[in-house]
Specification:
The structure is a single chain. By secondary structure, this protein is an alpha+beta fold. The protein is built from one helix and five strands; from the N terminus they run βββαββ. The protein has a five-stranded mixed sheet, with helices on one face. The longest helix is centred in the middle third of the chain and has 14 residues. It is elongated. The relative contact order is 0.24.
Length: 72
Amino acid sequence: MKRYHVTPKDDQWQVKGERADRAVSVHDNKEDAIKAGREVAQNANGQLIVHRQDGVFQTEWTYGPDPEKSPG
């Protein structure tokens, strides 16, 4: 599953794919970064992980089909 992170960068917020060298997008505020990140994650059937200003995990959204049910 493709994972994207919303993290602070300098005085802005970035949406960046996990293990990517470059950000998908950079925004002036966190709300715009989350909105853009959710669109990217939805289109990729992936996951968006949002961090606080101090870098600590805040919340996440996962998109795509539900996994098949396993017995037990």
